Amino acid sequence: MIVTFLRDFQTFWLKIEMSKEDPLETQELEDIYYAYHYITDELSYFGEKKQVGRFAFQLADLLFHTLFQHEVFASRMGSIVPSNSDGSTHRRTRSLSKTVITNYAPHLEKWIKRLGHFLSYFPDHRPYLLGLRELFERLQSTSTPTLITSQ
Predict the structure, then answer these.
(1) CA-closest candidate to residue 44, choices 108, 112, 116
(2) Which end of the chain has the smaller Cβ count within 10 Å, N or C?
(3) Which helix (H) or strand (E) segment is 59 a member of?
């Protein structure tokens, strides 16, 4: 389900760029956000079960790090974001127009808050959640969105 969600998220933004639609006027974005909301709730639920072990946290790491590497979050994250808890990085290649990124930037908060919501279920400092906590802090600390320019 996570991979399907990430594929749908990426495909949606590619279609937006090609069609020049306003992403805020599409039901598809709300459907994608609903799927994201559902997935984060499920990860929270399974993360609380001892029988699952770290599997739910590995899936959460995949979800959040991959999602927040998407260029629509570039205005929040800058041109390089950590890909995972080992500190490796990926450079962004931008294909979305500055207009799309600028217009949608104020609406990113609800996506970021879902990461905070997930982490709130695990207040103890588990070492395998450190990468997600750092990602959330970085997203929260970047309060003034700035656009990246293509090089």
Answers:
(1) 116
(2) C
(3) helix 55-67
pTM, 2 dp: 0.77
Per DSSP bridges, beta strands 80-82 and 89-91 are antiparallel
- Containing 81, the helix (H) or strand (E) segment is strand 80-82
For the stretch 10-16, contacts whose Cβ atoms lie closer than 8 Å and that sit 24 or more positions apart, written own/partner, are 10/70, 13/70, 13/71, 13/72, 13/96, 13/100, 14/95, 16/96, 16/100
Closest by Cα among 106, 97, 113, 50 to 76? 106
C-alpha 10/C-alpha 13 separation (Å) is 5
**pLDDT digit string, tens, across residues 29-81:** 999 999 999 999 999 999 998 777 789 999 999 999 999 998 888 666 654 34
Phi/psi for 89 (5° steps) reads -130, 160
